[in-house]
């Protein structure tokens, strides 16, 4: 009988608690929107939707790179076995470095967006709209930064391992669970905050 991987189960249970955390943020957003809809007449007009759409696409594509890294980890292939531009022969490390770069670009894009919004007069203390915007997107941004740290740890572990085995592959897989979760949450936030009128 195959027993489920304890680390994977633990991460899935933990992500369930994270899901409840973000559900609370969504509830806060919709509650304040229902109580004070007038704030949504001006607040969303300050958002740069084309810029945020590109930033969202960057994060979503990073999930694809992450999954390619998982496939390499499942083959126990930590490093590339061909040339740098021979993507078919990339290992987990190369795919995870690319994922890290895209994730870092996403965070930098969020910081740039915050700076632009503050310049336009929307800060966390401006009104209820500003508060829920910065709290929901800010907590998500912190989760992305946590994922970036996790990628560095997995990459470092792959470099340090004498033999890339099940433990290293499991680390890569559970970090991918987290990264995909963060991406899915962002798609929900993007739809609610930027698209939903």
TrEMBL record:
Gene3D superfamilies: Cytochrome c oxidase, subunit III, four-helix bundle (1.20.120.80). Belongs to the cytochrome c oxidase subunit 3 family. This is cytochrome-c oxidase. Pfam families: COX3. The keyword Ligase does not apply. InterPro entries: Cyt_c/ubiquinol_Oxase_su3, Cyt_c_oxidase-like_su3, Cyt_c_oxidase_su3-like_sf, Cyt_c_oxidase_su3_a-hlx. It is a multi-pass membrane protein. The lineage of its organism: Bacteria, Bacillati, Actinomycetota, Actinomycetes, Kineosporiales. It comes from Kineococcus xinjiangensis.
């Amino acid at each position: 009988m195959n027993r489920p991987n304890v680390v994977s189960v633990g991460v899935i249970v933990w992500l369930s608690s994270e899901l409840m955390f973000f559900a609370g943020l969504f509830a806060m957003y919709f509650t304040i929107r229902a109580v004070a809809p007038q704030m949504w007449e001006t607040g969303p007009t300050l958002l740069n939707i084309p810029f945020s759409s590109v930033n969202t696409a960057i994060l979503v594509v990073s999930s694809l790179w992450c999954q390619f890294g998982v496939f390499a980890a499942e083959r126990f292939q930590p490093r590339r076995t061909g040339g740098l531009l021979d993507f078919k022969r990339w290992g987990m490390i190369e795919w995870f470095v690319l994922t890290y770069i895209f994730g870092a670009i996403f965070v930098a894009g969020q910081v740039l967006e915050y700076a632009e919004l503050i310049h336009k007069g929307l800060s966390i203390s401006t009104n209820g709209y500003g508060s829920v915007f910065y709290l929901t997107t800010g907590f998500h941004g912190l989760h992305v930064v946590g994922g970036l740290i996790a990628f560095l740890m997995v990459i470092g572990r792959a470099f340090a391992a004498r033999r890339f085995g099940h433990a290293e592959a499991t680390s890569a897989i559970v970090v991918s669970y987290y990264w995909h979760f963060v991406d899915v949450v962002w798609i929900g936030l993007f739809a609610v905050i930027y698209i939903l009128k």
